[in-house]
Amino acid sequence: MTRAAPRGPIAEATAGLAAWLADTTGVTVVTGPPLPKEPARSALVLWPLELRPERATVGVGVREPFRFRVRHLVLPGGSPDAAAGVLDRILVAAVAAGEPTIVLEPPAPPLWLALATPPRLAVLLDVAASVVPPAPRPPLVREPLRVEARPVRPLHGRVVGPGGAPLAGVRVQLSSTGAATRTDAAGRFSFAAAPAGERAHLRLRVKQHSLSADAGPPSSEPVVIHCDAKEV
Fold it and tell me: What CATH architecture is 152-226?
């Protein structure tokens, strides 16, 4: 038995809209371009026309799905009165459900010319679609994990500018651990755990400038980092 190939986002959006239209109108839905001749009285033609942008969302540390909308041409067949009745049911149901999105724009004249069919009563509907990026696969652990205990010490200090004025909001990062903090109104910063027995390398970000500083051997005295006027 041959397994059917999974649908893509555009095909899925079109199939979902076709099922919704069939349930809403009770008529047969034909997916395909409109034919030059008038479709059968009971047929409702559905045809995806174009892709439209969707408002993007921004996540933190997570790749968000790529979102877009598929615009469809919905063309009821039969007499003008019958077509208007079908469109009435579609519009009322879409407004009540809040989806699909009704596009209050008439199909452009070049569209009818390209389809080689005379202009008829129709509506454009937008359906949301998305492409979900695959989750990153973490690398395999091929060696036993090693736990190493290292002595640590607290580290605190101040960042000052010309004349000893405190600098607030400076980003201070401890290179050995990657921990970062920002200075307070008095220019103070602190780290609860810095490697003991070695010099601490600090990276500072001051008004779009990156600075480096080394804290000396372990001491209870606060580290004072002076930023030159040209760097601030």
Answer: Sandwich (2.60)
C-alpha–C-alpha distance, residues 126 and 52, integer Å:
8
Top-confidence residue, 190 or 198: 190
Beta pairing class for 188-195 and 200-206: unpaired
Characterize the bridge pairing of strands 180-182 and 200-206.
Answer: unpaired
Q: How far is the C-alpha of 190 from the C-alpha of 192, rounded, in Å?
A: 7
Q: What are the φ/ψ torsions at residue 191 (nearest 5 degrees)?
A: -125, 130
pLDDT per position as a tens digit, 11-27: 999 999 999 999 988 88
Instruction: Check if the beta carbon of residue 69 is closer than 8 Å to that of residue 127.
Output: yes
First-to-last CA distance in the chain?
71
**What is the pTM (predicted TM-score) of this model?**
0.55
Q: Which residues pair with 29 in a beta bridge?
A: 44
Per-domain boundaries in the chain: 9-56+64-131, 152-226
Q: What would be the CATH architecture of the domain defined by 9-56+64-131?
A: 2-Layer Sandwich (3.30)
In angstroms, the CA 52 to CA 10 distance is 12
Strands 43-53 and 28-31: parallel
